[in-house]
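Justification of computing resources. Each target in the renewal requires a structure prediction run like the one illustrated here; the chain below, 247 residues long, is used simply to show the kind of job we budget for.
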Amino acid sequence: MSAQIQLSCGANIDYCRLARDETRSALNSLLKDDGILVIPTIADPPPKLGSKEILSEDYQARAFSLLAIASMSGCCQVTLPLGSHDKCPVSVSFIARHGGDRFLLDTVQEMYTSLQEQADIAAKSNLSSNSFSQEESAEIAKEKGNIAFKEKQWHKAINFYSEAIKLCGVNATYYSNRAAAYLEQGRYCFITSFMFFNVKAYLRRGTAREMLGYYKEAIEDFRYALVLEPTNKTANLAVNRLRKLFQ
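Resulting structure tokens:
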């Protein structure tokens, strides 16, 4: 056993014991009776679940730079899993003085609920951040669609607006802009339904319905547009034009 330890540590057993005692003394002096050292469980970002990275010698050497603190010093350590991020496990470790096992376990038990709540808040914050990034990406796609529309590249514009809708499906402008491109192509049947509305959306769907011969539905759309914008000339002209069909 002694020979094996000498081989693995690169020094004799007495040197290993000295290193252990000095490390334990330093930590006991730092932590005293009521101190806890909080550290990341490993030194690097955690590997993804199922990753073969953990088998590499380089990774294990870096990981044990923190994992070995408690085992070298004889101090007690508790590691708490806090969930995952981007398919990577996330955890934090707590170290207390040598012989402070009961103190550490009691403290961690008291803190656990609060730690889980903080982890949940962080996860929700990350989701909000991702949502914001999607909104930004949607705006970029919309602007690309606007450029294509100005260049009369209708199909390209429709694709960009559709991409914006996939990224952020609650923005009426994206639906309305896509409808304008469909109108230019004469593809009126693609404009008969919207999830969200603004004045332009009603005007464009009303125009599509009028072109398809759905006059009753078309006049309703133009009237809805007038509710939102009573002075809209296009809607007023359309309502007057369609009224004549019912006289």
